[in-house]
Amino acid sequence: MAQLTLTARDDVTLAAEFAPAAGPTRASMVLCHPHPQHGGTMRAIVIGALFEALPRIGVACLRFDFRGVGSSAGEHDHGDAEHLDVEAAIAAVPALLEQHGAEVDVPLVLAGWSFGADMALSTITPSIAGWLGIAPPLRFASGFDAVADDPRPKLLALGQHDEFRAPDSVVAEVAAWTATRTVVVGGASHFFVGRTDRLVDLAAGFVGELVES
User: Is the pTM of this model over 0.90?
Assistant: First the structure.
């Protein structure tokens, strides 16, 4: 694992960590953490589980602390300037892959959990191959329409017993989204304690679909 600093377009510096794939690189993934004002960091349980497990199956992972979190500079901006943080992380991936001797032209998945899922699902760049949203509240951003209408694949993983937004409500809201699949993880809360293995499996399967397409 490599520790590094990212710089957003407004010159805010962000703490980040990169885990290269253990073998041939099949894909890369940028991981966006939960709400900064509710204890969310890049080491939160779901982000940590994906960051640890996915490199073992060929998925290089980049995680970072949003502005105002940990040693990242700046202040929380209620989901606005945080999009600059996400874009900075996406932009950093090709050079990081190259530095570690990996294939650069591999699918990139933009993933996030909770607040991070909302940030991911409201960020659109040409380099993204697909989106993985884990328990998105769908209320911390207002720019979901562009991703919703985009033909690239989206997978939403929802907790059966989510305390902050019922999965049926999310399913109904995204029913008209293009190329979007929802999976409800049985027995899971918003925090997926004891069910992160299921999220790893879903992420691995989603990557496999992108690699094979």
Answer: yes
